[in-house]
Amino acid sequence: MKTPWHLWIVGLATLLWNAMGAFDYFMTQTKNADYLTQFTPEQLTYFQSFPVWVQGSWAVAVWFGVAGSVLLLFRTRWAAPVLGLSFFAMMVTSFHNFVLAEVKMQEVVGAEAIYFSAFIFVIALVLWLYALKMRANGVLR
After folding, report:
1. How many domains does the chain fold into?
2. CA 40, CA 46: separation in Å to the nearest integer?
3. Is 1 a residue whose pLDDT tops 80?
4. CA distance 44 to 120
5. Residue 100: inside a domain, yes or no?
6. CA–CA dist 34, 64 (Å, integer)
7. Within a domain: residue 9?
8. Is this model's pTM higher than 0.70 or not?
9. Quick check: is 63 in a domain?
């Protein structure tokens, strides 16, 4: 089957999007001093207080997102499950940040944390559904 033109657009756009998330994760986890200057001391304390399982789910969310976009561009059927795992891990991380954490993300970052997280949620869900549709249509092998 011929690759639909939109697969290249979706794949490249989401690869860039997911790479930004991976960059944020990497710079935060490696405690890059220049990068961390954009955060308040309260925000830094909040991010550094994540339990190991939250750091792990955050890692799975961002790195599987990058991998899923690459797999989509390579037209492999593995793009759908990898993006599904990324979406699930993002939900786990968000559940911690907005429900389980002693100090909730919106208390530290503000209301924009809710809106931006919702935006990330929608993109991850739509990308996963897109990959499922492309697999069902035989575009991904």
Report:
1. 1
2. 10
3. no
4. 21
5. yes
6. 26
7. yes
8. yes
9. yes
